[in-house]
Amino acid sequence: MHSLAITLLANHTWTAGAVYTENLLQALNILDEESLDKCKIFLPEDYSLENTEIQKFSDRILKFKGIRIRGKKDKIKRILGISKHLTLQEQIIKHQSEILFPAFHSFNNHLPCRLLSWIPDFQHKVLPDYFEDAEIASRDRRFVDIFKNTDRLILSSRKAKQDFDQYYPNQQIPVHVLPFTTALYPRWLTIDPVKIVQELKLPSRFFIFPSQFWKHKNHMLLFRAMKILKERGHNDIKLVCTGHKNDSRDPDYFPTVNRWLQENGLTDQVITTGVLNRQTQVQLIRNSLAVIQPSLFEGWSAIVEDARLFGKRILLSDLPVHKEQNPPFTTYFDRYDDEALADLIYETWQNPKTPIDNDELIMNANKRMKEFAKDFISILDAMV
Q1: Per-residue pLDDT tens for 168-203?
Q2: Backbone angles phi and psi of 145, in degrees to 5
Q3: Is 214 helix (H, G, I), strand (E, B) or coil?
Q4: Ramachandran area for residue 181 (φ above 0: left; ψ -120 to 50: alpha; else beta)
């Protein structure tokens, strides 16, 4: 494989970037361990590896501080040895990396390698009412800068490609559609999910919606469906919601939602756990009766891929991208119809799905991961 520099962009509320990187590394490793021989992982110096799967690739991880040396002050620090880590530019030169992925910025041509970018979605164009005007303008500037200055662009779905063509019709950058998938670590299957559920003092039977409390995730549709079920006398049906409770675009969102749950007497039926580490969350998915994903927008849903990973039944909003993902054991519902969702939840509660054998889960996951890795490498081949 070509000499590849993989970097990572994530923050404390958006972990999808980190999980995407972990999945790609694991896919390359499953395809052929030698495919990682020329791969280096460059992480910001303050990035914590705690509770991440990237730890297993520690022999390939190098830290960096900043993109490049800027002015005399930085040069003096380098000469005196004050700066602990090399810049990203210096790391790439030192290790002779040919391609950087994912390049979330154009880096103003300061990096001596080809740039392969990944943009998760164009939500700010599709749902502009969920963004401040300044944020829309900022994203547009950054994306156009990427289109003009990086070599190729990866999008995760055909729907994202349609959005790109619609909203940025004059861009000439070569675009590749590369859907991602989720890695299955065999040790996850050795853990008893029931013990995790008991440790968290959760009910033994529940549905799960593992997602940040962001407005476009459409929690309120799901909560209205739970209210309908309560009014029908089905107080025993439980829902667990994991994820960050802060939406930077609407800080009042979770407090408003939580107050609504309290006012409608749903706090016994709807349990919000806050953020859980990845290993804990997958155990809750394993133990759940089904995954519910009511979102109003996705670029390519990681929740759907996690549900697919464990062969779970999914109640899924009728987004075009969800239908493009086309996971098995799925029932779609109108993303604005709480009555229809309530009916589906009750039906699923009454008729749980039989679990899939672990060996079959591993076989299916590895097959998808190898396809992901092969498609990624074919994009690299087209760049050099």
Answers
A1: 999 999 999 999 999 999 999 999 999 999 999 999
A2: -60, -40
A3: coil
A4: beta
